[in-house]
Each structure stands twice: as structure tokens, then as C-alpha cells.
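Let us work through a complete example step by step.
Step 1: write down the sequence.
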Amino acid sequence: LSHSDLSQDVAGTSSVSEASALAVVGKGARLLGPRTVLGPVTCAIAISGDAP
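Step 2: predict the structure and record it as C-alpha cells.
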């Protein structure tokens, strides 16, 4: 849903938060929306594909 040039330069992927959230939830996961950035903190939220 979004990307970060800094993440791409540092980690080799442009969506560390989103990818991490999806990986933790597992198969069928989906993002609830774009990542949120507040100062040095970035957060992405994913839910199970089984959730309504």
C-alpha cells in the first residue's frame, strides 16, 4: 500500500512494516490500511484472512 525509499536503501525492501505484519499473521493475511509513521516509529496492522 505504501513504500519507503529509506527502507529500500537500508533493508532492500520498500515495505518492511507491511511485510512484517503480513508475515506474522500468516497465510491469508491482509493489511487494514497503509502504514502509519509517527516520528521514528512505523506501524502496519494486518489481520487474518478469516477475520470479517
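Step 3: interpret the result. Residues 8 and 36 are 17 Å apart (CA to CA).
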